[in-house]
C-alpha cells in the first residue's frame, strides 16, 4: 500500500514547478491546469506555503519560491554570501544588530540574512524569522520604492504619506530614518538593495541600537546602511538609483 500523503505530494509538485520557473512568477491558473489540481486545493496549499515562508506572491501575476525556502537551498548562494559579508561589516562599524529582510507577500517581512554583532545590543533573531512590526524607516523605504509584496497596512505617519516631500527625501538620500519616532532605537534606519532590473531585492535595516540617537547621528547611520545596500546591489549585479551623497566623516563605532 502506498504511503504517499496526497496533500504533501501536491505541495511538492507545486514547489517543483515554482523552482523550475524561478524567479519568474507562475499564475495559480497555470498551476491548476498544468498540475491537474483542484482550484480550492491549489489555493489552500499556496496559502499554507506563504504562511510558512515557502511560497510568495510578490506580484498579482503569480507565485514564486518564498524567502524562507530559498535560505534552505543553494539558490542565490553568491548573493547570500555577499549580503552576509556586507551585514557583518555594517554591524561591526555600527556596533549594532543589522538584518536584510524581504516581504513574504502576506504583509510581513522575513529575515534572509543577519550581521554578526559582537558588541552593543544583542537581539535573538535568525534567518527565516519574521521581523517585528516594521519600523518607520522600513515603511518609508517600502513607500518610496514600491516594494512588491509589501502590504499597504504598514502605514506611514501622516507627514510621510502620499509620496510627498518626506518620501522625496528618502529617494534622494537613499535611506529611511526613524528620527524622533516612537520606535527608536528599533529600526533606526533602512535602505533598499536592488536587482539588475532596478527593483528592490531586499531591505537592509538596523534592528536595534543601545539608545536613542540625535537626528545628526541617525543621518550618519542611515548613510552607512545605504552604503551597505549599494555595495550589495553592486556586488550582485544590481542597479541602484543615483543618490544625493553628502560628504560626511567615516562612520565608525556608532552606538558604542
Shape: elongated
Element-by-element helix/strand order: HHHEEHHEEHHEEEH
Q: Can you give the helix content as a percent range? A: 25-40%
CATH topology of the largest domain: Beta-Lactamase
Numbering strands along the chain, what is their spatial order in the largest sheet? 4-3-7-6-5
Radius of gyration: 19 Å
| Distance separating the two termini | 63 Å
Classified by CATH, the class of the largest domain is Alpha Beta
**Residue fraction in strands:** 15-25%
Q: What's the rounded overall pLDDT mean?
A: 78
| CATH-defined superfamily of the largest domain | GAF domain
Number of E strands? 7
Uncertain stretches: none
Number of helices: 8
Which secondary-structure class do the elements indicate? alpha+beta
CATH 2nd-level architecture of the largest domain: 2-Layer Sandwich
Major sheet description = 5 strands, antiparallel
The figure for the number of domains is 2
Region (Disordered): 237-256
Domain IclR-ED: 61-238
Domain HTH iclR-type: 5-67
Keywords: DNA-binding, Transcription, Transcription regulation
Give an account of the 3D structure.
- Residues 5-67 form the HTH iclR-type domain.
- Keywords: DNA-binding, Transcription, Transcription regulation.
- Residues 237-256 are annotated as: Disordered.
- It holds the Pfam family IclR_C.
- It is a single chain.
- With 256 residues, the chain is an alpha+beta fold.
- Helix content is 38%, strand content 15%.
- The chain has a 5-stranded antiparallel sheet with strand order 4-3-7-6-5. A two-stranded antiparallel sheet has the order 1-2.
- Helix 6 packs across helix 7.
- It is elongated.
- It starts with 5 loop residues before the first helix and ends in a 21-residue tail after the last helix.
